[in-house]
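Contributing: when you submit paired examples, paste them exactly as shown. First protein:
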Amino acid sequence: MKALVLAGGSGTRLRPITHTRAKQLVPVANKPVLYYGLESIAAAGIREVGIVVGDTHAEIEAAVGDGSRFSLQATYLRQKEPLGLAHAVLIARDYLGDDDFVMYLGDNFVVGGIESLVGRFRGSRPSAQIMLTRVSDPRHFGVAELDADGRVVRLEEKPREPKSDLALVGVYLFTPAVHEAVAELKPSWRGELEITDAIQWLIDNGHVVEPSVISGYWKDTGNVADMLEVNRLVLESVERRIDGEVEDCELIGRVVVEAGAVVRGSRIVGPAVVGAGTVITGSYVGPFTSIGADCVLSGSEIEYSIVLPRASIRGVRRIEASLIGHDVEVTPAPDTPKAHRLVLGDHSKVQISS
C-alpha cells in the first residue's frame, strides 16, 4: 500500500499567512501540521508516499526532504493547478500503479492516527473506504447520505442543501478501481474533478464503498479558528520540559521551554510551548499558546494563540485567539486620540475596539 498526500492548494482561508507560506506548514504546537499526517502514515506501516505539490513545492520539498526523517520514501508529484482531489489521483496514476493507497489531505488533523482505519481496509478491502463525521454546517464539506442499513447511497461536494450532516473526513482509502472512476469524471460546477463524484461512480457501478462514522477528533485546519483549536488539542498532551534558561519566573503546569530559549521575569501558565532561541521578558503567556523559534516577547500578555518564528511582540497588553505570522512586529499604537495606524497585508482581518 502507498500513500498519496495532497500538499498543494492556495490556502485562501489562512491569508495573509499563506501568501508567503504553504498552509500545510503552518505549525501546531510548533510542528507543521503536515508532519502529523506523515507520522500517522508511517505509524500505519506505509513506507512509500507520493506528495502532490503546487506553487509552494520548493517549501514543501525543503521541509519534508526525501521522507527519511519520517521513515518514508517521498516522491513529489507536480500539480500545475489545484483542479480537485480527483485530479490529484489522476496525475498520480503512474506513481500509484496497481497498488492500494490511502489519500490524506495534508492540512487535516486526525487524533489517534489512521492505523485502525488502514487495518480495517486491509482486512475487508472494499473499493473505497471513507471516514465520516457529523458537523454543524455540512455545506462546506463533501456530504454523504446513508440508507437505513448504514450503506452509502449518495455523495455530494459542498451541497447548497445538504441531505445529511455527515461530512467526509480528509482521509480516503482506495483500491485501483478508483482509477477507472476518475477517468470517467467531468468537471463539477466548481470546475474541479471531485473525489465525491469518483466515489459516487463506484457506488453506481456496483463497487463496495465502506463508511466509518467516527466520533473522535478531526479538523480541517484551513482557517484560524480551527488552527487554534487543533493547537489547543495537541498542547493538552505535552509533558512539562524545561531545557532552556529560566530566571525569576513562575511556570505553572505543562510548560515546554526548548533548549536555547530564555525566559526572565515572566509568568507562563501551561499548556504552552516556547520555541528554541526565543526570548521572553516581563511577560505573561497563558494556556494553549505556542511561541515559535527565535521570537521576542517583552512586556506583553498573550494566550490561546500561535506565534510563528521570528515574530516580536513588545509592550502589548492582552493578545488572545490570534495567529501571528513569521517576522511580524507587534507594538503599541502611538498615543493619538481616536486613531489607529495600520499596515495590513491583502485579505487581513482585524478587530479593533472602538
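Second protein:
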Amino acid sequence: MTAIDRRGLLLRLLALATAGGSALPLRAQSLDTLRILSGFPAGGTVDVIARRVADKLRGGVAKVTLVENKPGAGGRLAVDELRRSLNDGTTLLITPAAMLTLYPHIYSKLSYTMDDVTPVCGVTSVVFGLAVGPAVPPTVKTLKEFITWAKLNPTLSNYGSPGAGSPPHLLGALLEKETGADLRHVPYRGTVPGVQDLLGGQVTSFVGPIGDYLPHVKTGKLRVLATSGAKRSRFLPDVPTFTETGFKALEQSEWYGFFLPGKAAPELVQRLAAAIRAAMTAPEMADALAQYGLEVAVTSPAELAKAMKDEGAAWGPVIKRVGFTPES
C-alpha cells in the first residue's frame, strides 16, 4: 500500500469515527441536564407525574433531571416555552391533552401550533366526575335526582370547574344542554380551590378529575354522581358513568403525554419514548398514581400523534354546540 493509499484510508476511518461520535449522544451518552416543563403548579397531578418520571430518568437519559413549573394561561405557557427551546433533547414537556387538542378550537391566537411539538409518549389517563357537596340535600343520590333538584332550585344550582374552557367546564355545559337545567358555571383557578368551596357549600356541584374527590368520598363529605369514562372507574366502582345515566355525549377521558420540540430527530424520539415507557411501567408507578385517580396508559409516539388528531377533531362540534368563547 502506497503512502497516498494509507493516507486516504486514514482519512476515511477518521470520517467514520467522527460520524459515529456525532450520533453517540442519541444512542448511549447521557445528557448533562434534562428539564421537564409542566404548565401547572407544584403538587398537582401533572407535577407528580413529571417528578416521578424525572427520578426514573436521572442517571440514565441524563445526569441531572429538573422539573420546571411554568403555571399560567391554562397550561399554555409551558407549551410556548417548549416551542422556544433548543431541539437537542434537553427539554421535554408534559401536558394534558387539552392544551393541544381543545385550545386550538377556543383560542384564535395561540402562540404555538401542533407543528411546534413532537409526540413522544402518552403516559396516563384520567376521567372526570360530577360531585355534589353539603349544599345539596343528602336525599339527592343520583344524577337524575340532582337535575330534578336543580330545576326546582334554579337560584342554587351551579357547578364549578378548574377553569373556563377546560374539559370539565365543557362537560358541565354539555350536561346543561342535554338536560335543560339552568346550571350556572363558576370557574376556578384549578381544582383545589373549587373542591374546597364545594366542601364548604359555596358551590353546589363541581366537575373535575375524580382523583381530587377520592379522599372526601371516603369520609362521606362529597358524593360523586357520575363519571365520564367509557366504563366505570375502578376507583369509584359503585358510581355509574354518564353514559349509563343516559348522557352518552358526556363520555370523555383525558390523557397526559410527553413531547419534544417540533421536528425532533426520530432516533431521539424513540430513545426518550423507551426510557419514559420503562419509567411508567415500573411496578411501583401504578400504585403511586392510583391515589390521584390516574391510570397508567402508555402509548407510542405514533399512537399519541393519532390521539391528538382524533381528539382535536372531536372537540370541534362540542365547542360549536355549547357556544363557548373566551369572552363568553
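If you have annotations for the second protein, write them as plain sentences, like these:
Residues 10-125+254-322 form a domain with the D-Maltodextrin-Binding Protein; domain 2 fold (CATH 3.40.190.150).
The first helix runs from residue 3 to 27.
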